[in-house]
Amino acid sequence: MDILNKSFSLPRITACLAAGLFMVTINSGAQETEKKEKAEKTEKSTQAEKSGKSGKGESDTVTARLSGDKQVPSVETKATGKSTIKVEEDKSVTGKVTVENMDATAAHIHQGGPDKDGPVVIPLKEIAKNTFSVPPNTKMTDDQFAAFKDGNLYINVHSKKYPSGEVRAQMKP
């Protein structure tokens, strides 16, 4: 210890130890912040998936899970589906819908609240078995865009067994 004190002096050693502890503390704090940010991002993503909303900004990308219990009235089915629809601020619409455990005959975007049926506003085009897409160059009217912003559009996939719709999901911007 006497050699250390003569060669390096006690204040210098103390300062080095303090600086080292400070760096460890900062690094640990940065890692904690990074962990929190990652957890918050994961939570937001999970909430978006549950709510059907996955993005905002110049456009709204709505990812939603379709099921029979969201039909009006609800239907008992093993069919499920997923939709990803993007609505731009210029009212252009793109996206697709895919369903499983059913033989889909048609798919549409309808105007109506969560507990109401409504008219077709955008017929979707079948591009493969049980997969439908928004036709190219599709644009909403001002009224349809306002209904979308208010959460009053829904995706509905129909079948022979349930011609009024077997699975449904509300589009929530």
Automatic annotation (TrEMBL):
Give the signal peptide range: 1-30
Q: Which UniProt keywords apply?
A: Signal
Which residue range or ranges hold the CHRD domain? 58-173
Keyword Signal carried by entry: yes
- Composition bias (Basic and acidic residues) maps to 32-59
Give me the ranges of the annotated region Disordered. 29-91
The keyword Cell division belongs to this UniProt entry's keyword annotation = no
Task: Report the domain of life of the source organism.
Answer: Bacteria
- What protein name applies here? CHRD domain-containing protein
Which taxonomic lineage is given here?
Bacteria, Pseudomonadati, Pseudomonadota, Betaproteobacteria, Burkholderiales
